[in-house]
Structures are given as C-alpha cells and as structure tokens.
Amino acid sequence: RAVVRTLLARPTSGLSGLVGKVRIEQLRREAHRRWRDGYSDRRFYTLLMVNGPVPLAYLFERLDEPPAYISDVDTANLRA
Question: If both were cysteines, with which of 6, 11, 35, 79 could 39 make a disulfide (CB 3.0 to 4.6 Å apart)?
C-alpha cells in the first residue's frame, strides 16, 4: 500500500529511477569500453561515489581522467 500511495502522489518517481538505472548501465558499458583492462567494479563505483550527486553526463566526461580512489578524497569534508 505504501508503494502505491507513493506512486500515486509522485507518478514519475518510478520512471525517474528507471532512467537513472539505464544511464548508469550505459556509463558502466562505456567505462568497460574506454578502460579495457583497467576496468574494475571498485574503480567504477569510486567514480560514482567520489563525484557525489552530479548529472550523469558529467561522469561520462570524467571517464577519460586518471582513476580516482576513495583515499584521494578529503574525508574531513565528507563528515556531516
């Protein structure tokens, strides 16, 4: 019932989630293509997490940059 209520209140939320999922899958395929042997799930998820909430189009541009690692991030700025 809760899901139905949510979808009735915000009918496009399910579609938005699906579009995001499809775009992340496209980003993963593009990362495989560009990074070839340098691809790893850890490197891909680091790309997603280090950049925070940004448009996915920006992440497609970041694929050509050297790999980033969580240890490269200033964790002092991540604490709430």
Answer: 35
